Amino acid sequence: MAVTCSGPCYITKMFAGLVIYMLQIQIASSVMIAKSRHHNTFYKRSPMIQANQTSCALFIGTWVYDDTYPVYQSSACSIIDPEFNCQMFGRPDTDYLKYRWKPVNCELPRFDGEEFLIKMRGKNIMFVGDSLGRNQWESLICMISASVPRSPTQFIRGDPFSSFKFIEYGVAVQFYRAPYLVDIDLVQGKRILKLEDMSKNGGAWKNADVLSFNTGHWWTHKGSLQGWDYMEAEGQLYQDMERLVALERGLRTWAKWVDANVDKSKTRVFFQSISPTHYNPSEWSAGATSVAKSCYGEKTPMSGTAYPGAYPGQMKVLDAVIRNMSNPAYILDITMLSAMRKDAHPSIYSGDLSPEQRANPDHSADCSHWCLPGLPDTWNQLFYTALFYQ
Question: Which is the catalytic residue, given 217, 278, 345, 369?
Answer without folding.
Answer: 369
